[in-house]
Each structure stands twice: as structure tokens, then as C-alpha cells.
């Protein structure tokens, strides 16, 4: 059996801190969504720049379009603590986290996603992501739910979670980088229904890129979530990753950035032709 989705309130949460350069485009992306009813919650970490002024300047535009807006500005313990605060305020049936700098791929993204047949007992729906890199836009297809025991199937910007499920199982703040994977992993382990739909949901800004240290830290946290961090197989894998990141970093440092971007762009074009 399937639910009729058109009348269900959906909540979008944006967390931000000193995001005066990026908050406007994210808010505009939410404002342009055709789906109704829509609720928008902004959780600011007590910004010291112009972020809050921009938020309050744009807030009336949401009211004109019938989108309920809530703004909170207070210190937090990091991104996942701020996201938990957003969940506590959420009144929607579903909640999505579109953080500062990220946007929906199209104006009708939410409308299209919730036009699919979604099972009554589904607790998480997600799709594909576009990653904005320095050298171009890179598509990242979502993985099927069965892969969750091994990896995060999509970025959280491309996911809509059951709000009550999130309130009952908030992000675990002991995971600084992979609390979103911890939520999804345990949702799957509890036997909750998760559905993937092949459509682009979010354009994720990855222009700054994750450092090798951050990538390794994420892998450590994901291994802890899966309970394999002490196994010999994983430790050998991790040592290999450390070495490969070190070698890649050394090579990248020797190549002028302009040429490096061209090489990466050409490599991406080559992969897309396969």
C-alpha cells in the first residue's frame, strides 16, 4: 500500500555558521521549491558575520509564498547538534537537511520525489547527488539500501527522513563527522523500510574538498559504526588508504593547480564516457 504524499508537510532544515557568502543561495533554493505545504527551519550557530541579517532580510519572501519559517541562533556543539535542534522544532512528516552552500537541483525536486510511490512504512527516502568540484559538476548516484551495511548510500542533503524516527533516534554526537551514517546504518539494522529513487536531489558544494585527514577520520568513524575498526582486515585497508592519500598529496603538491584541475577535469570526462 502507498500513501498520498501531496498534503503532507515537509520540513527543510538549514544549519549555518558565519555563512554570509553562501546562505542566500541555499535559502533561495528552498524558496523556489514548488512543493506545498513546506516548513523551513534555520539553525544558526551564533554567527558573528552578516549571516543573520541576510536570513531576516529574506524571511518575508517565504511568508509571501506560504512557507512557515523558524529561525534559531545560539551556540551549538557542531553541525549534528545543530541538526538535532532543527529536528526538535520540525512539524513536518519528513525532514531534509540542506545546509548552507548546498541547493536543490531543480525547483520541482521535492514535488517530483514525492510523486513516486512511497510505501506506508518507509522511514527514509533518497536519491542522487551532484557534487560541485573546482573542475566541474560530478554526478554521484545513490547506492541501493542493501549497501548501507558497508557505506553511506547518499549524502544527507539528498535524503528525507521520517521526522518522528529522527526525534526518537537523534544524531549521536559522539560521531563528529559520520553521525548521519550512524543514523542511517542503525535505521537499516532495525529493519526499517528505506527507498531509493533515481533522480537528482541536491547539488552539494564540494569545491573546497575534504582534506586527507578528514577523509581518514570519516573512515575511522564509519568503521566504528560497523564494528570492524579492530579487525586486521580493516586495519590493513586503513594503512593502505593512509599511504595512498600521502602519495596522492605529494604528487598533487608538485603539479601547478591550474594543470591539476585540467587533469582532473579530463579524467572525469573520460570516466563519464565509459
Description:
The chain is of the alpha/beta class. It folds into two domains: 196 residues, Spore Coat Polysaccharide Biosynthesis Protein SpsA, Chain A, CATH 3.90.550.10; 43 residues. Helices cover 40% and strands 22% of the residues. Strands 1, 2, 3, 4, 5, 6, 7, 8 and 9 form a nine-stranded mixed beta sheet that branches. α2 links the parallel β2 and β3. α1 runs parallel beside α2. The longest helix is centred in the C-terminal third of the chain and has 23 residues. The protein is globular. The N and C termini lie far apart (39 Å). The mean pLDDT is 91.
Brief digest:
With 274 residues, the chain is α/β, with parallel strands linked by helices. The chain is built from nine helices and nine strands.
Amino acid at each position: 500500500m502507498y500513501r498520498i504524499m501531496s498534503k503532507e508537510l515537509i520540513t527543510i532544515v538549514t544549519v549555518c555558521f558565519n555563512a554570509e557568502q553562501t546562505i542566500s543561495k541555499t535559502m533561495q533554493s528552498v524558496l523556489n521549491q514548488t512543493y506545498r505545504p513546506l516548513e523551513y527551519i534555520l539553525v544558526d550557530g551564533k554567527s558573528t558575520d552578516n549571516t543573520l541579517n541576510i536570513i531576516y532580510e529574506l524571511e518575508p519572501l517565504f511568508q509571501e509564498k506560504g512557507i512557515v519559517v523558524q529561525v534559531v541562533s545560539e551556540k551549538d556543539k557542531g553541525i549534528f547538534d545543530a541538526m538535532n535542534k532543527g529536528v526538535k522544532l520540525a512539524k513536518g512528516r519528513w525532514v531534509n537537511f540542506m545546509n548552507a552552500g548546498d541547493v536543490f537541483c531543480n525547483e520541482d525536486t521535492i514535488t517530483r520525489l514525492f510523486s513516486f510511490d512511497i510505501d506506508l512504512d518507509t522511514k527514509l527516502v533518497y536519491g542522487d547527488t551532484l557534487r560541485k568540484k573546482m573542475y566541474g559538476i560530478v554526478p554521484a548516484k545513490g547506492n541501493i539500501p542493501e549497501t548501507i551495511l558497508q557505506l553511506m548510500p547518499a549524502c544527507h542533503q539528498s535524503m528525507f527522513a521520517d521526522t518522528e524516527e529522527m526525534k526518537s533516534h537523534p544524531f549521536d554526537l559522539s560521531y563528529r563527522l559520520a553521525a548521519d551514517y550512524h543514523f542511517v546504518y542503525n535505521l537499516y539494522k532495525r529493519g526499517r523500510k528505506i527507498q531509493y529513487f533515481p533522480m537528482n536531489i541536491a547539488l552539494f558544494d564540494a569545491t573546497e574538498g575534504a582534506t586527507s585527514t578528514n577523509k581518514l577520520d570519516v573512515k575511522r568513524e564509519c568503521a566504528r559504526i560497523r564494528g570492524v575498526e579492530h579487525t586486521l582486515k580493516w586495519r590493513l585497508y586503513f594503512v593502505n588508504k593512509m599511504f595512498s592519500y600521502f602519495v596522492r598529496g605529494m604528487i598533487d603538491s608538485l603539479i601547478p593547480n591550474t594543470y591539476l584541475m585540467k587533469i582532473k577535469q579530463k579524467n572525469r570526462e573520460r570516466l563519464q564516457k565509459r
